[in-house]
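Narrative of activities, Objective 1.

The group set out to show that a structural description can be obtained from nothing but a protein's sequence at a throughput compatible with the screening campaign. Below is one input-output pair from the validation batch, recorded exactly as produced.
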Amino acid sequence: MVDKGKIESAIETILQAIGEDSNREGLLATPERVARVYEEIFSGINIDPQAILQTTFNEEYSGLVTLERISFFSMCEHHLLPFYGFVSIGYIPNGKIAGLSKFVRLIDVLSKRPQLQERLTEQIVNLIDLVLSPEGVAVIISAEHMCMSLRGVNKVGATIKTVASRGSLSTQNDRFKEFETIVSKEK
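Output recorded for this entry:
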């Protein structure tokens, strides 16, 4: 549960610390607005992501299933600045599939918490592997980080790509190359 009162107080302190007048008309409701935003963007903190994939279906499909360019945003835990981009998932079922919306919900829950792209990639692939026990699973995340765009090196448009895979979709396997080719063509 987000403590909006503490957030409001902290934002008012920040505004004063940067030399702003927190009583200025345009800033009067800012602490309350930021508290509501934080409640939304950190809404995945107290949700069990494993529970999202629990509804599965028995299906004898042995081909590659891909979900491509699922948009997401998260907050970098180092600077509390956003990073955003796309997640692509590929998996080869082993008699069990999940509804496609479950994967999207999984990404939403895991990304709506202070996060690192590398950890997010591993969490997604590990949870799919754990719950569905597919023959193989791979996840590619491509994202832009505001901590690189707005500050520090100031490189707008630089994209970070992370990849994690398990089983027959390991990065050393031809099936992974098939997945990567499909995903790279969808832009």
